[in-house]
Automatic annotation (TrEMBL):
Residues 1-237 form the CN hydrolase domain. One of its GO terms (molecular function) is hydrolase activity. PANTHER family: BETA-UREIDOPROPIONASE, NITRILASE C965.09-RELATED. Gene3D superfamilies: Carbon-nitrogen hydrolase (3.60.110.10). The keyword Cell membrane does not apply. The keyword Signal does not apply. This is Carbon-nitrogen hydrolase family protein. Keywords: Hydrolase.
């Protein structure tokens, strides 16, 4: 099994342009024989809480059908971020496309206080099965909280996939925390972060992978677009950058 954490700069208000970048990165993951690729928090819209309503969609929006087709044709799971309409409110969503299955949604369960004026929390955990492994999605702030990873471990998850939107200081804290929980719980942790301006900060990239001993196996830097790949067969990882 091979998993990819994507890194890219999304442009606010340009959903179609962002979709094109997601497609290109997904095709790179396919070329590397990956079984799954996941993207940063709110990757299709860029992270802008105040303007999230302008780019919010429903889970079954037809603009996302291209990802179901990519999933079906290439036997790859695709997890991407977008503000999702929930009744009359919004959620920080991760839409999950699996081959020959109906698309599903994981919504951020624990919101940062800055997000509370704009979003409502998700109500349940979602786990992804892949090659006899259990993968637990986590979205930024909640991935830094021990109860969230403990819940994943109690569900027998052995991979923790953190989709984030972090500035330099957030990345530095994340590197310490993700290494700690990887070693403490004996799980592989992967972080997918964005690049460039987002809300009132700058996303600092540095997407990375930590093995079950807490070692950082591979990463991208704060400028590269691309993917970081983990190969479970031999517990190795590498990064590859591309021009978007």
């Amino acid at each position: 099994m091979k998993l990819a954490a994507a890194q890219l700069q999304s442009k606010s208000g340009d959903i179609q342009g962002n979709i094109s970048k997601h497609i290109k990165l997904t095709k790179v993951a396919v070329e590397h024989n990956c079984d799954l690729i996941f993207f940063p928090e709110l990757s299709l819209s860029n992270y802008e809480a105040e303007n999230a309503c302008d780019s919010a969609i429903s889970v079954d929006d037809q603009n996302l059908q291209v990802f179901q087709t990519l999933s079906d044709e290439n036997n790859i799971i695709i997890c991407l971020g977008i503000p999702v309409k929930k009744d009359k409110a919004l959620q920080i969503g991760q839409v999950i496309f699996q081959p020959q299955q109906a698309r599903s949604l994981y919504a951020k369960q624990i919101l940062h206080e800055d997000e509370l004026p704009y979003f409502v929390a998700g109500e349940q955990s979602v786990y992804i099965g892949c090659d006899n492994n259990i993968l637990a999605p986590a979205i930024c702030y909640e991935s830094m909280l021990m109860p969230h990873v403990e819940q994943a471990v109690s569900a027998d998850a052995n991979f923790y996939l953190a989709s984030v939107a972090k500035n330099k200081e957030g990345v530095e804290r994340g590197y310490v925390h993700y290494a700690k929980i990887a070693k403490q719980f004996g799980i592989t942790v992967m972080m997918s972060n964005g690049l460039g301006p987002a809300d009132n900060f700058v996303s600092f990239g540095c997407s990375a992978i930590w093995d079950e001993q807490g070692n950082c196996l591979a990463s991208l830097d704060e400028k590269q677009s691309g993917i970081v790949v983990f190969d479970k067969a031999n517990n190795t990882a590498y990064s590859t950058s591309i021009d978007l």
